[in-house]
Amino acid sequence: MSLLSTAIFVVHVAFLVQKFSYLLLPYGPAADIPPGRGPHLGPRADPSNVSLRLSNKKLTKIYERVDEGKDPLVIKPETVILNNEGKIFVLSENGSLVTVVDIQETDQPFISTAKAIEVAHLGTGRPLSGKFHQDGCLYFVDVIMGLARICLDGIMNSERIPHVELLASRVQLDDGSYSPINYADDVDVGPKTGHIYFTDASNARSDRDVRTGIYDIMYGSKVEGIRMNLSGRLLRYKPETGEVDVLITDLAFANGVAVDKDETYVLCVSTFDRAVFKYHLDGEKAGQVERLLDQFPGVLDGIDCSFQTGKCYVAIPSTVSAPLVALMKLPPFLSKLVRTLLLMLPRNATPAAEPFGGFAEIDPGASNSPASIIRVFQDPDGRDIDFITGVTEFGGKVYLGSLHGNFIGVYDLALIPSF
Ligand SMILES: *[C@@H]1O[C@H](CO)[C@@H](O)[C@H](O)[C@H]1NC(C)=O
Ligand SMILES: *[C@@H]1O[C@H](CO)[C@@H](O)[C@H](O)[C@H]1NC(C)=O
Ligand SMILES: *[C@@H]1O[C@H](CO)[C@@H](O)[C@H](O)[C@H]1NC(C)=O
To answer: Which residues form the Strictosidine synthase conserved region domain (predicted)?
Structure first.
């Protein structure tokens, strides 16, 4: 080929790539990774620490007892929800709010079973997490729909028919324009004000797998991990006015949210920074954001704080694979190019997370004491529990949700270590 025809060919290809880039790159190209950001920063997991295995006698797994001829209800419970009385709820993959009752031990040590009852159907989306409010309603986030609530007292005393109210699917920005909430991920309720704090993980929308009809919410997070667009946000909804405002922007997949007992701050997880951020609601630093902790052995997901002990728990769904670390460490131009090419691959060609189960106990710190990671509990090859996405503390126990299992994990913090 002559130089001229090569040039014409290249121009044509460039034109076609640009014209059809929405097909190749529906979520846009990879972004530059600012210094100090990204999933490659942080320590590796210690493979010898098996503190979360069943053999350590502190983890119990609760499986559903499914009646013959019935379909199971506890399907990939991302986060376990407890009400004030300790009643257990999960949100199922097909949009059901399910309560888990009558827990019974089995012959196998640390394996229990329970009945699951559908309380309500929450709509056509994919609810991930929820929190009961002082007003008796369950506020929940649905990846597809946004922030919603259902007031269950109607079910309990049949005075009113419970229905789902969609509260926020977009947020008004300072310039007056509206920005859609594309991936509502986690929610917490302010114990003092009753305000709702919730995350919008990414601007990458999830869609249904056409074969199964199930929403593919994992792909959106994979896209964000590779693309690093930093479009995650922490948002706040005020029930009294219906307003939504933005508290934190530029998070690398905004995931778990937890408020402290005095509602002086909100913790928010940035999954692909492996970091917990703190937004000050009160005091001298009100309105400021601080990167609180980031030396975790993997990427992070849900977070929850105990109002009794002041300690918080953060889920570590997976470690970061060596190829991903290498990719992030390439020279910026090359890294961006390779990551953009990866985003063009068919979605089933994107690598799956290596099996790992873990969560960390953290001290969120105070004005006179620094924050710290106290303990890391892990099942390093995910043998007994894998891909923990939600942690909920209640009565000295941490309830563990997972997108890779159809059971609930319960870790008893109070038991004396057996090693
Ligand atoms: C993130 O994605 C949005 C929408 O696709 C785009 O407008 C924005 O420029 C991207 N940001 C970066 C840092 O690439
Ligand atoms: C949700 O799935 C379960 C199990 O497949 C099924 O029993 C239940 O009827 C479903 N609920 C709805 C509303 O689709
Ligand atoms: C594993 O981690 C737990 C919690 O941090 C800690 O108590 C224990 O000593 C560690 N075990 C090993 C073998 O490192």
So the answer is: 185-283
Q: Which of 79, 75, 120 is nearest to 94 (CA)?
A: 75
Atom 13 of ligand 1: nearest residue by CA position: 229
Specify the CATH number for the domain of residue 264: 2.120.10.30
How many angstroms is it from 257 CA to the middle of ligand 1? 24
Determine, yes or no, domain membership for 109: yes
Whether 319 is covered by a domain: the verdict is: yes
CB of 375 within 6 A of ligand 3: the answer is: yes
83 within a domain of the structure (yes/no)? yes
Q: What is the pLDDT of residue 15?
A: 73
Residue at 138: amino acid letter: L
Predicted confidence (pLDDT) per residue in 129-169, tens digit = 999 998 889 999 999 999 999 987 655 555 556 789 999 99
Residue 96 CA to ligand 2 center (angstroms) comes to 7
Nearest CA to ligand 1 atom 7: 28
Domain span at residue 114 reads 25-415
Q: What is the pLDDT of residues 298-355, one digit of tens each?
A: 999 999 999 999 999 999 999 999 999 999 999 999 999 999 999 998 888 877 788 9
Q: How many domains does the chain have?
A: 1
H/E segment holding residue 11? helix 3-19
234 lies in some domain: yes
